């Protein structure tokens, strides 16, 4: 080879190296530290390589490696920043510029024709209007506030749950899937019917009786399928949508679609039933409010508006966390109680002392049950249900700390990392409800709870109060009536087998509820 051609090859190689440096290693000015980018998927590929079961833990490893609480990534061409520090997250989450959501494929996948609908994944004026409408009118029917009438209906559902757990076996065929003899039940399935009924009461003013509740179990399982197969970074289909046609990715894609379409179908059926009996002069429930609005509303160009697709997807945005979300959170709490029987004993004692055993606990008992309340707070902290929250998007250029970030950058808040920061909690991995109690009086000290299970800011979870109320009622009821044990054939729960999809949680597991002092035999 002549000298000239050798030099030419060297020049080409250097150019290619320089191009690789610019594209994969060089970081934009004032961008947070982070890893170089792999071809195609870039840092999403690195996350998959590091920890495919828990992407938030993969980012934690990277952040520790780069010794930073603000990690800069690039996800297949989109800049993304992960915040792992509570104070920084609080400041950023309350900035309007960060209230946007990216247009991600996994959000579109939830709709038959891939339209972007609902509340959680839209932004701008549509999001404000839809979120306001939902919150305002769900509250009218008891959601997230004190309402004697609603609490009575919730109690009724809890009586049914106590009856189911006390029975020797499922009374109806579908119940036999998750109830075995002697109070042995499968989590999270066992909570799905109760929680669906509690939510549907607000939405359609109706509940399903035990004999006819099979469709609730089915809808809850479809929602679980979706929640377990999505992920906090939008799934691989957000970056390479065509992969859905390539085996074996088709399997995951089909599960996601089947979960989403199955849930939508259930919601469409209940909405249809409401439509048939709708009377604009006699509004009965939330769906009626919506139907009236949809008739009065004149749709503008490109506006999300008040059509049927929007109702179905926005309801799905609420139904998934209100049923599967709370069911999984309760299941993780049960696992913690199995591992910490001393906590359960203290709750037993507290409930026995404070609540008359002739009746179920109510929200009025809350002030007298600080340890129970602290245990629920500890469960929400240590087992952060949505470990990375829902991804935010900058709606304009943003500066914070020493960083300058461009419009359309993704922001992920590592809520799990924040809720388990050693500097804040001291012993974050220990399940210790006492951390929220006053050492002298034993009372609950809210200012000690610096966790962020529901995020903060304008995007803060609108279901927070509902969740806290319902979790309190379910947990206090179960504790009053039952002892909780692993099945005789099972070992104690192994928390390392948990998985993170959209939500973090255990695989299905069985647990035994043993009635206490005959308390379990209700109706
Ligand atoms: C254990 C229960 C729950 C937990 C841990 C939880 C947590 C969260 C978190 C972390 C977010 C993301 C906030 C952000 O983007 O910064 C969120 C959003 C949301 N949650 Fe919840 N949630 C729960 C229950 C509920 C319930 C019962 C509802 C029923 C209405 C609900 C409805 C929503 C909606 C609609 C959003 C999107 C809000 C928006 O984008 O404006 N959640 N939730």
TrEMBL record:
Pfam families: p450
Keyword entries, A-Z: Endoplasmic reticulum, Heme, Iron, Membrane, Metal-binding, Microsome, Monooxygenase, Oxidoreductase
Gene3D superfamilies referenced in this protein's UniProt entry, alphabetically: Cytochrome P450 (1.10.630.10)
Record bears the keyword Endoplasmic reticulum: yes
Function: May be involved in the metabolism of insect hormones and in the breakdown of synthetic insecticides.
One function term, GO molecular function aspect: oxidoreductase activity, acting on paired donors, with incorporation or reduction of molecular oxygen, reduced flavin or flavoprotein as one donor, and incorporation of one atom of oxygen
InterPro entries: Cyt_P450 (IPR001128), Cyt_P450_CS (IPR017972), Cyt_P450_E_grp-I (IPR002401), Cyt_P450_sf (IPR036396), Cytochrome_P450_fam2 (IPR050182)
Membrane topology: Peripheral membrane protein
Name this protein carries in UniProt: Uncharacterized protein
GO cellular component terms attached to this protein's record: endoplasmic reticulum membrane
Cofactor(s), names only, from the UniProt record: heme
Upper lineage: Eukaryota, Metazoa, Ecdysozoa, Arthropoda, Hexapoda
Any one biological process term the GO annotation gives: xenobiotic metabolic process
Binding-site residues, heme: 461
Species name: Anopheles epiroticus
Domain of life according to the entry: Eukaryota
Family statement: Belongs to the cytochrome P450 family.
Cellular location(s): Endoplasmic reticulum membrane; Microsome membrane
């Amino acid at each position: 080879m002549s000298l000239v051609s050798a030099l030419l090859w060297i020049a080409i190689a250097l150019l290619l190296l320089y191009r690789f440096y610019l594209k994969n290693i060089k970081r934009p000015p004032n961008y947070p530290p982070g890893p170089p980018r792999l071809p195609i998927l870039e840092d999403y590929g690195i996350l998959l390589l590091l920890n495919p079961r828990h992407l938030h833990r993969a980012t934690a490893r990277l952040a520790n490696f780069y010794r930073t609480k603000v990690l800069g990534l690039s996800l297949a061409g989109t800049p993304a920043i992960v915040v792992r520090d509570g104070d920084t997250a609080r400041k950023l989450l309350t900035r309007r510029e960060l209230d946007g959501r990216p247009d991600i494929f996994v959000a579109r996948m939830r709709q038959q024709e891939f339209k972007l609908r609902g509340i959680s994944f839209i932004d701008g004026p549509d999001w404000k209007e839809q979120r306001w409408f939902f919150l305002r009118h769900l509250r009218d029917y008891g959601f997230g506030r004190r309402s004697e009438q609603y609490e009575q209906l919730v109690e009724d559902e809890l009586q049914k749950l106590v009856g189911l757990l006390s029975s020797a076996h499922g009374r109806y065929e579908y119940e036999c899937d998750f109830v075995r003899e002697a109070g042995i039940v499968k989590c999270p399935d066992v909570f799905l019917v109760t929680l669906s009924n509690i939510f549907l009461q607000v939405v359609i003013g109706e509940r399903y009786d035990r004999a006819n509740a099979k469709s609730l179990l089915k809808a809850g399982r479809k929602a679980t399928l979706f929640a377990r197969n999505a992920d906090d970074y939008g799934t691989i289909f957000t970056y390479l949508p065509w992969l859905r046609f390539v085996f074996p990715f088709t399997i995951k894609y089909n599960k996601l679609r089947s979960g989403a379409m199955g849930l939508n179908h259930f919601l469409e059926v209940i909405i249809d039933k409401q439509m048939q009996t709708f009377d604009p002069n006699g509004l009965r429930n939330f769906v009626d409010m919506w139907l009236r609005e949809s008739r009065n509303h004149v749709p503008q160009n490109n506006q999300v508006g008040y059509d049927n697709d929007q109702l179905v997807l926005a309801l799905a945005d609420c139904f998934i966390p209100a049923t599967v979300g709370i069911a999984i959170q309760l299941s993780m709490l049960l696992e913690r109680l199995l591992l910490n029987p001393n906590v359960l004993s203290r709750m037993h004692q507290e409930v026995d002392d404070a609540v008359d055993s002739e009746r179920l606990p109510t929200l009025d008992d809350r002030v007298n049950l600080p340890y129970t309340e602290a245990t629920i707070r500890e469960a929400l902290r240590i087992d952060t249900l949505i470990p990375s929250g829902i991804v935010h998007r900058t709606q304009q250029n943003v500066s914070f700390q020493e960083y300058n970030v461009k419009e359309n950058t993704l922001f992920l808040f590592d809520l799990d990392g924040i809720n388990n920061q050693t500097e804040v909690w001291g012993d974050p991995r220990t399940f210790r409800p006492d951390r929220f109690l006053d050492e002298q009086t034993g009372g609950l000290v809210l200012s000690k709870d610096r966790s962020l299970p529901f995020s903060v800011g304008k995007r803060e979870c609108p279901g927070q109060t509902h969740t806290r109320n319902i979790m309190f009622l379910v947990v206090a009821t179960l504790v009053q009536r039952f002892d909780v044990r692993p099945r005789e054939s099972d070992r104690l729960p192994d928390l390392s087998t948990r998985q993170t999809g959209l939500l973090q949680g255990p695989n299905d597991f069985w647990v035994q509820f043993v009635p206490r002092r005959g308390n379990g035999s209700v109706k």
